[in-house]
Amino acid sequence: MISARQLSKHYGDFRAVDGISFEVPAGESFGLLGPNGAGKSTTMRMIGGVSQRTSGELTIMGLDPEQHGPEVRAHLGVVPQQDNLDEELRVRDNLLVYGRYFGLPMSYLKPKADELLEFAQLTDKAAAKVDALSGGMKRRLTIARSLINEPKILLLDEPTTGLDPQARHILWDRLFRLKESGVTLILTTHYMDEAEQLCDRLVVVDKGRIMAEGSPAQLIREHSTREVLELRFGSERNTTVAAELQGIGERLEPLPDRVLIYAHDGEAALEQVNSRGLRPLTSLVRRSSLEDVFLRLTGRSLVD
Amino acid sequence: MTDDPGAPSAPLQEATQPYRLSAHRPEVSARRARRFGSWYYAEHVLRSMNSYRWTLLASSVGTPVMYLFAMGVGLATLVDQNSAGAFGGVSYLAFIAPALLASATIMTAATEFTYPVMDGFKWRRVYYGPHASPLSTDQIAHGHILAVTVRLTAATLIYFLIVAAFGASPSATGVVAVPVAVLSGLAFGLPLMAYSAGIEEDRGQFALVMRFIVTPLFLFSGTFFPLDTLPVFLRWIGWVSPLWHGTELGRALTYGYHLPPGLAVVHVLFLVVLAVVGLRRARIVYARRLGR
Fold it and tell me: Is A63 in the B-facing interface, judged by CB distances under 8 Å?
């Protein structure tokens, strides 16, 4: 459905997107995971047919968005990073005017708007002004708006950034339902849990390049161990104690605030630490996550 | 509906059956957007304006009534007593009415092509919604202009009706002053729109435009006295001012002020050229800024 080859976008000397390639088949939920400034949003804007690429190839439903902008955009639903609802209009009217951009008639739009408000759990806010909505509600309204033309592809640029945990879970639930109904989701995020929840497959992006590609489980398997032991010795000792931990687990990652030991069996690793007479202030055994994959690939953590 | 008991009940059943909503195909969306996109966006802007309809209506009626009373009736009584015949044989009220009409349109255009443009690009980023839809950047610019033109036409028409009610438009051609005033509004507004679209950071530029461009134009465009009464070194303000060109045309239309046909053509051309240059520039800036 979407195919990118050596896609690049430069702003002067700055390479926002530097030769990335991927394919997204129909019905897949595909994520771009990376820190802020990695080039995720720029990639999304090129897929969305609103930003011109510097080089490379890009097709959506077999069409080049630069030559067939309106045709490509007619296929898409877009949830931008920053909400751009019309706050002077009421909630339901935002859906109606948006639907008109697609030339959809009012006889379709009126019942469809009500259906989408229900889906977004905003039915009782239909006549409210947009400024009266909470951040999570605005986000849900933006998602409802993006669905007005019944798109087969939905682009979501950091859909839950800035929302509280409860609002995020409501949103994830709605997105999951869309995925189940066969909509192809393309989303960017810098949240590991979001990527793990929603993406069938993802690419880890850093500095405009793809660092790794695969399903969340596959990436963890390839780039990390099953478990991670997190030890805190206090900020003074974390780096110095690393030498004394050598040989435990498969890999050691000393960070300013803690030391990570990558091991297949975290509890066993902890026993080894104790048997060497080292007494961490706190210890925690957990499963490996995409955060560990990212740390391994870039040497940095995702959210600074 | 019919109450005939013999009528078949099938249509009723059909209506109560659940139906699937479905949108037309994306190709149809794209084709319609290519053809009517500007109107679709204009529809949106007009709906936004509609939420302020009472405020807009009140100012469209209040402003002319206030000005015409204060200047046209109050000041005019004094002027007419002391300098009868100074304004080509018409009353002072008739002399300033077309100028007030055109200046009101220009001021409205100045408001509509400054803050709302900034709102589209920066504050509430309203333009970025349609930008993600099948609409093109040109269509977003055109849609905004179309909606403002509708608003200007409605407000100017109301203004003209009030002028006529004051008896200040004796000629039969008076109502043609309405489209002329709208053209003047666009001649001033479209270059301003292009300027507004290029502003990244609001550092009070719009307040400066109002203070140092709109206000002097209002005062020195032959609005309250013929341009000839100004010293030569100030007359250029009138010559470059859409308001002066619009007012000269308006006077010819509302009270038969003598305007040689050649000069009338120059006035219209001047206004059209300004509007077209502004439009072309605005399209370029819109495309560049939205497509970044």
Answer: no
Mean pLDDT, chain B, rounded, equals 90
CA dihedral B259, B265, B270, B272 (to 10 degrees): 130
Q: Which two tokens stand for residue A228?
A: 């991670």
CB A233, CB A208: distance < 8 Å: no
Number of A/B CB contacts below 8 angstroms equals 113
pTM for this predicted structure: 0.89
Cα Rg of chain B (Å, integer): 24
| Helix, strand or coil, per DSSP, at residue A191 | coil
Q: Is residue B180 predicted with pLDDT exceeding 80?
A: yes
Give the relative orientation of helices B92-112 and B53-67 as an angle to the nearest 10 degrees.
150
CB of A271 less than 8 A from some CB of B: no
More confident residue, B82 or B247: B247
Burial class of residue B198 in the structure, from the number of CB atoms within 10 Å of its CB (0-12 exposed, 13-18 middle, 19+ buried): middle
| DSSP designation for B31 | H
Closest-CA residue of A relative to B124 is A84
Cβ neighbours of residue B84 closer than 8 Å, sequence gap 6 or more: none
Q: What are phi and psi of A256, to 5 degrees?
A: -55, -40
Search chain B and give the residue with CA nearest A111. Answer: B21
Question: Could you give the CA distance from residue B38 to residue B102 in angstroms, rounded to a whole number?
Answer: 26
Look at residue A271 and give its three-state secondary structure. Answer: helix
Facing residue for B48 by CB, picked from A84, A86, A111: A86
Residue B56, φ and ψ in degrees, nearest 5: -65, -45
CB within 8 Å: B128 and A76:
no
Question: Does any CB of chain A come closer than 8 Å to the CB of residue B56?
Answer: no
Rounded to the nearest angstrom, the minimum Cα separation between A237 and chain B is 47
Residue labelled with tokens 């690049």? A8
| Beta bridge mates, A206 | A209
Which residues in A lie closer than 8 A to residue B23 (C-beta atoms)?
102, 104, 108, 112, 148-150
Nearest-angstrom CA–CA distance, B238 and B262: 18
pLDDT digits (tens, 9 = 90+) for B107-123: 999 999 999 999 999 99
DSSP-assigned states of every residue in A63-91: B-TTTSHHHHHHHEEEE-SS----TTSBH
Can you state the percent helix, strand and coil of chain A, rounding each to 5? 35, 25, 35
Q: How far, in Å, CA of A188 to CA of B235, rounded?
A: 59
For residues B255 and B236, what is the distance between their CA atoms, to the nearest angstrom?
25
B141 residue type, one letter: A
**Closest Cα to residue B55, out of B98, B111, B100, B114?**
B111
- Shortest CB distance from B29 goes to which of A87, A115, A149? A149
Q: What is the DSSP string of B171-232?
A: SGGGGGHHHHHHHHHHHHHHHHHHHHHT-SS-SSHHHHHIIIIIHHHHHHSSSSS-GGGS-H
Please classify residue B97 by burial: count the beta carbons closer than 10 Å to its beta carbon, then call 0-12 exposed, 13-18 middle and 19+ buried.
buried
**Between residues 32 and 51 of chain A, which touch chain B (CB distance below 8 Å)?**
48, 50-51
On whether ipTM exceeds 0.90, the answer is no
Q: Which of A48, A84, A115 sits opposite B125 (nearest CB)?
A: A84
